[in-house]
Amino acid sequence: MSRPSAPPAPPVSRAGEFTLWGEVARPSRLTVADLRTGWEQHRAEVVFDCATAGPQHHTFEGPLLREVLGRVRPDFDSARRKERSRFLLAVSGGDGHHTVLSWAEIDADFGNAPVLLATRMDDTDLEAAGTQLVVPSDRCGARYVSAVTGIWIGTCRVPVSV
Ligand SMILES: Nc1nc2c(c(=O)[nH]1)N[C@H]1C(S)=C(S)[C@@H](COP(=O)(O)O)O[C@H]1N2
Ligand SMILES: [Mo]
Predict the structure, then answer these.
(1) Sign of the alpha-carbon dihedral angle for 62, 67, 73, 75
(2) 17-155: what CATH class?
(3) What is the pLDDT along the chain (162 residues), one digit of tens a residue?
(4) Which site from 17, 51, 102, 116 is most exposed, i.e. has the minimal number of CB atoms within 10 Å?
(5) Cβ of residue 50 lying under 6 Å from some atom of ligand 1
(6) What is the arrangement of strands in the sheet containing 87-93, beginning at the earlier edge strand?
(7) Ligand 1 centre from 140 Cα, in Å?
(8) Residue of the nearest CA to atom 13 in ligand 1?
(9) Protein residue with its CA nearest to atom 24 in ligand 1
(10) Ligand in nearest proximity to the CA of 141
(11) Which atom of ligand 1 is nearest to the CA of 140?
């Protein structure tokens, strides 16, 4: 039986830089400085639970993920909600930790989750460490991927019954 293939690892990035790529019109490389200057900054005070360290309290600042992704132009007709609802996002950290979101989770017409790409955590600018995914609607910390190196956007193959 053939299994759907995972996206290949994103191209290697310099420290603090990450790649936006996949089924998009304009694949891009961005730094935390780009994130800070190119988009409106939002603030999120969050608590998430870590299985090993317990509850973690942080204040993050950064642009909304959906606004950043708008700039790379995913390969969908943005007026069509059904088309948008097919897209997935795979977010990778430099240490190999990776997770997925659906486009619909962050889309204002669906889940409308205010997911951020952080430029700052508490009193620390993230220029050197790299951006961090902030998912305020998650109870658990696993998707708060730090030192992000790549965000892949695309659709998965549809299983077809024979
Ligand atoms: N790159 C990367 N990000 C990661 C992880 C990881 O192993 N690698 N662990 C996640 C988990 S399980 C939790 S609970 C939080 C912990 O965040 P903290 O160290 O800021 O408290 O980071 C998340 N982000
Ligand atoms: Mo965790």
Answers:
(1) positive
(2) alpha beta
(3) 455 555 665 565 678 899 999 999 999 999 999 999 999 999 999 999 999 999 999 999 999 999 999 999 999 999 999 999 999 999 999 999 999 999 999 999 999 999 999 999 999 999 999 999 999 999 999 999 999 999 999 998 888 887
(4) 51
(5) yes
(6) 28-31, 17-22, 148-155, 87-93, 98-102
(7) 10
(8) 141
(9) 145
(10) 1
(11) 14
